[in-house]
Amino acid sequence: MVPNLALLVLKLSARFGASQHPDVIPNRSPRRWLAALLGVSPESLQRALRTLRDEGVVATADGEVRILDRRCLRERANIDDAALWLLAGQ
């Protein structure tokens, strides 16, 4: 579950992150919607987010997800920059 969430966070930041804050996913993505995208319960999503927070990879506040360690997040998602660029539709 955590690798799938890591990949989703990277994809959303590539698509929706503001140009001045590319490591912030705006709060337009309700957690229920994120959970549905991943095919998991909101509780499972919360546990995976907590894991990434506890590892210092992301922070969450006011519905936003902020990437703190992009390299580690890419490692957790098992993806490199070039593949992420292709997946994000750049």
SSE blueprint and pairings:
Elements: H1 2-16, E1 24-25, H2 31-38, H3 42-54, E2 58-61, E3 64-67, H4 70-77, H5 81-87
Antiparallel strand pairs: 1-3, 2-3
Helix pairs in contact: 1-4, 2-3
Structure write-up:
21% of the residues are buried. Helix 1 (2-16) packs across helix 4 (70-77) and helix 2 (31-38) crosses helix 3 (42-54). The chain is globular. It has helices spanning 2-16, 31-38, 42-54, 70-77, 81-87, and strands at residues 24-25, 58-61, 64-67. Strands 1-3-2 form a three-stranded antiparallel beta sheet. By secondary structure, it is mostly helical. It has five helices and three strands.
Keywords summarizing the entry:
3 strands; 57% helix; 90 residues; mainly alpha
